[in-house]
Design a protein that fits this description.
This protein is of the alpha/beta class. The chain is 45% helix and 13% strand. The strands form two sheets. Strands 3-7-6-4-5 form a five-stranded parallel sheet. The chain has a two-stranded antiparallel sheet with strand order 1-2.
Length: 163
């Protein structure tokens, strides 16, 4: 178990370093000489307001009453390594395209009912809250104004659930 957790942590560190190094380049003498632009839409102005954050207790209640459309925006390998029950995996990189699908195509692709723009039970989550905050911003830009996110993410869920 410890080796598996260590392996997952090392993999996550490697992926973070690889992602970071692809965005910036080192110049002579180790100084930063340039940055590439990112397509990420996340900024401090898109931080969620407190009303759009779902707590662990709220999430448990929503899951127990089956009053939730829970979308995990982590990568598929993270989702397969551990997930919150009843969550549907839509990696962040595919979210905008997926939310633009017709209800019929969405249901065919994800095997769940497509979320509606006025649904108040639509919740995103990721590992620790950063990607789900980005998902929140993307969904809001598409008109999903009542969307929320579980800021604690799978990390908090696993800690509470003893996983």
């Amino acid at each position: 178990m410890v080796n598996m957790v260590s392996g997952l942590l090392l993999r996550r560190i490697f992926l973070t370093v690889a992602e970071t190094s692809s965005r910036v380049s080192l110049g002579m003498r180790g100084q930063w000489c340039g940055f590439t632009t990112s397509t990420t839409r996340f900024s401090e102005s898109s931080l969620p307001n407190p009303d759009s954050v779902v707590s662990y207790k709220q999430l448990k209640n929503m899951l127990s009453t089956h009053n939730i459309q829970l979308f995990d925006v982590r990568n598929q390998d993270e989702f397969m390594a551990g997930r919150i029950p009843d969550s549907v995996n839509i990696p962040l990189s595919q979210l905008e395209e997926s939310l633009k699908l017709s209800p019929e195509h969405f249901q065919l692709q994800f095997e769940v009912k497509a979320p509606g723009k006025d649904d108040d039970n639509l919740v995103f989550h990721c590992q620790k809250g950063r990607r789900s905050a980005e998902a929140l911003a993307i969904a809001r830009q598409l008109g999903f104004n009542r969307v929320r996110h579980y800021q604690g993410g799978y990390s908090e869920w696993a800690a509470h659930e003893g996983k």
